[in-house]
Specification:
Chain lengths: 593, 172
Amino acid sequence: MSKPAEDWTELSTLVTQLAVGQISDPDLVRLEAMLLDNPRAQRHYCELRALNVELFWKFGKPLATKAAVSSNESTRSPSRRRTRAIVRGATALAVGLAAVVLVALFWSGNNNQPMAPMAPAEPAAFADMSEVVGNVEIFAEGKDAKSAGTGTKLLNGQTVRTGGDESSTPVVYADGTRLDLASATIARLWQTLPTATASKRVFLTTGLMRAEMPESTDSETMIISTPHAEVRLHGAKLASSVDRTSTYVELEEGKAELIRHVDGQSICLTQGSFVVCTDGIEPMTAEPLAAPAEPRSIGKIHGAALRYFPDGAFLAVARGERLEICHPETGASLSTLTGHEKSVRHLVIANSAEWLVSGGFDPYLIVWNLTSRLEERRLPVGPLGTRCLALSGDGRILACVPSHVRQRGAMTLWDLKSGKEIHRIEYPKAEIESLAFSPDGRMLAAVTGDYRIVLWDPFTGQIERTLDMGKLRAQSLAFTRDGRYLIGTCDDHQIRFWDTSRWELAKIHPCGVSGCGSLAVAASGNAIAWGLHDSTVEVWTIDADLQMNQVAVLRKFRKRGPEALAFSPDATRLATTRDWELLKIWDLPKELK
Amino acid sequence: MQRTEELLQLITRYQRPLLHYIGRQVPRDSDAEDVLQEVNLVIWRRAGEYEHGTDFGSWVFKIASFQIMAYRQKLVRNRLQFSDELLAQLAQHDFPGVQAIDRRREALQHCLEKLEQGDLELVRLRYEAGDDVASLAGTLGRSTKAIYRSLAKIHESLMNCIRHRLAAEDMA
């Protein structure tokens, strides 16, 4: 080994940072520069990764083995695994301290009411787990986790941990109080003597839990403690989700009070409202809840992308290497377009309903004639296929970003009708990640990897303007139908609206505790929808002055919100899908018509 | 039933090699594990396509390749990642077979026993804590930078030990 050891130490440090997802973009670029065209460094990297896998296997006990062997459907989310790992590490470190910490937590939460006596020393079952689904485990501090099944009885102070995907369990107390723990949730449950003012206490560390207290117990209080707040319930039906940065609480019925840990600010929730609490000290406000909706129909397919035909007569869904033309209300497949050899990930339809363009992992786009349903032509995009695709409102200009080879952007613009290339645009600073045409087709907006939104004139291929995002990265872009605003979902869990006349930020809107990714704007211009990372889609009305009201919350998604959203042209329906998430069609409230 | 058991055994046997294969191209541990789980699901769903007696390894690594490709495509919008050019170069380095992986594992076990207790504890905590190195640093009262640096030195030490051990075995 001729290289000095410290060189490898630096490489090794960066690889470790990369392995835990804590590497900055400049460091990642530096690591790539160290490795590229350097076989010795690459060999070292491969050995480091192999070592990492072995250590991970030995000490981290990857869950995949168990998942593979025990269930073909059981997968677990990273957050759940992370939390499990933290709990395991903490358990190993602090077996002796855990009880003390727990008692301290318990009493500190009760500091403004008479101290409730603790449970009897002898452990006694106080609740049952009924209808356990998937992987659910229970454990007490310092003890190994045990699998739980339907009928498992919970002892005081035990923690319930649900697995990923569709794992869940209800916990039913003797008085009928019911907790429903969704997947990837960790909750420790305590019950003090029934004479206490608040005899039930739940430490919700992460995940999603719904609590339902029977009416007869409305004089009693249940306390839910999260890393960010304490929630006191009185005869309530409530759902709460917790992640690292925030606690979300929505109250369906009854009364609840939330007290923020950081500054003690409290807020009373009324029936049908929600609040988000973080570690910040900004004022908390309770917002009204939209009624949750049920899908009108659930199709039998899933896909990566979907679009309604402009006349609303059909719905096109990219399903693997095929395009399914589906019934717009039922989602039933009516016909199939074949021609791609690899998965289709993107599709766009011209407003004239004349053309549909599809692209994905194939090195070409296919332009389909929607009248004949036949392939019209193929447009080459590069060996790695298509990264993103957009079509101008009049259907004249097609823009395509190929999957990149290195961190630099490139984009090709075609005249769709003739199939002739108009411009080939290079953006050497960073990759291009998402595209949106303005409704008049005079502006093409793109998210770029250098934390900017860049606006091109598609007719000249020249950059017209750049919006510097600081350290923020936008994910999806869309214009409002009147073209007055450019909308971007951003990785700080907020949606931004830029006024296109002055290119100033006009509005910032929060999009849930988990953040949002996909975005759709109705052709009617009065509705907007976004997919949250917590298995939810929100639908909002929006007017010309950016006044917004939430009108629907769509759940019923397995793991995360769908990647693909599309409004029907009359905004009466929304179609949703993603890989492994069945096509669903939702009726929307009438005010969106 | 017999076929199911056989498939389960094969899947179980290939978990570690698959994670090695995925881990080289998917550098973040939690992502690599997610991809492995996706691969397991695909293997299970497409079990009917596997012909008994044919090369199971070749089949599952092919599935893994597609899943890695799909994963990278999904990641494209959200995160900076290694360029395809670098990944292509990395792919040219020989991938160790199942037996080589087992040999390295045995050597690692031996080398871990030689680590100082404090270093061994740090390694154990790091891999138990997953990607939460910040919490680990807080627990140990050290900066995250110091933790990364220490881990890097331990990794280098372990790799040197493994190389020497394997070389000595080859000489014997």
